[in-house]
Amino acid sequence: MKLSVGIRKHGFRKWYERELLRSHAHMALTFVCMVGLIGAFEAASEFRSWTDQAFDLLAVDAFSGDSIPVHLLTKEAFELYFRHLKPDGVLAVHITNRYLDLRPVIKTAADHFKRPVRIVDFDGDTARGLFRSRWAIIAADDTFFCHQGFEESKLLADRPGFKAWLDDYSSLFAVLM
Q1: Domain containing 79 — which CATH number?
Q2: Whether residues 95 and 116 fall in one domain
């Protein structure tokens, strides 16, 4: 759009605000991302500094849309989760995603800590406004899955060659559907 046409159409102030936003959007986005990263690092360091807890259940449900907070799915993160659980505690990880299959990530972490894992799928109910979801349940032993409600839970198959996610390694390409 030509400068004069834009000013006549929207008025100088509106045109200037629109151009300013357009030219500085990347800077604003960078700033927001940096604030988010700083918050995530502070939260992670605070969680690491907690004294060991004794939770019966710990749910990891930080997924928003289809973005993946990789730092919550590393071997080191799982080590922290298990440290804060009772010996017979259960870790529930929300892994619903349209584009990525996170089951191998969960399976390799559970195998590393020698814990059984099952997948629980909920198909949703559009009439009641409930969306589909997928949870990975990691227990201390298989007896947990004998409880009511786990009859339809699924075992996870091994994926040969899948490399565990670490604080210094992860690959989204390896989990693309």
Answers
A1: 3.40.50.150
A2: yes
CA dihedral over 128, 133, 138, 141, signed as positive or negative: positive
Condensed to tens digits (0 to 9), the pLDDT of residues 57-83 reads 888 886 766 677 888 899 999 998 998
The alpha carbon of residue 75 and the mean position of all alpha carbons in its chain are separated, in whole angstroms, by 14
H or E element, residue 42: helix 12-49
- Dihedral sign computed on CA atoms, order 159, 160, 161, 166: positive
Residues 111 and 167 in one domain: yes
Total Cβ atoms within 10 A of residue 131: 10
The dihedral sign for the CA sequence 73, 74, 75, 76: negative
pLDDT over 90 (residue 132): no
Are residues 57 and 21 located together in one domain of the fold? Answer: no
Q: How far apart are CA 32 and CA 70, in angstroms?
A: 19
How many domains is the chain partitioned into structurally? Answer: 2
For 139-155, how does the pLDDT look when each residue is reduced to its tens digit (9 = 90+)? Answer: 999 898 888 888 888 88
pLDDT band with cut points at 50, 70 and 90 for residue 47 = low
Domain housing 26: 3-46
Average pLDDT over residues 120-132: 81
Q: Which of 111, 112, 133, 46 is nearest to 84 (CA)?
A: 46
